[in-house]
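Hey, can you fold this one?
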Amino acid sequence: MSDHNSNTMDLTLHVWRQKGPNAPGKLETYEAKHISPDMSFLEMVDEVNETLIKKGVDPIAFDHDCREGICGMCSQVINGVPHGGQDRTTVCQLHMRSFKNGDSIFIEPWRARAFPVIKDLVVDRSALDT
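Sure. Predicted structure:
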């Protein structure tokens, strides 16, 4: 008997991993298992990170602050679309019910010349401070 709940999803994540600003980066593939549709996108990444840590793998670095859709720190490009493509929704307010069981999700940093990648999904936003 499987412990997989029919209300959960199994997903394949393709996540941009980059050790530092001058290091080469690449997409790495991870499985996200038993994900509740009620989780936020960032909660799903938290779950994946817990699994990675248990396996001795560095967790995925990503920015977040308020997790309330206010600050914009969580900006990521999901499946090629900033913030995941749901109108007027930041990544932290994007819920996993926007995806289907078996989906492949591509997660990349919000890249721009003014916002170089620091590590994984974290970018240097200091250009906004000037």
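The chain has a mean pLDDT of 89. Let me know if you want another pass with a different chain boundary.
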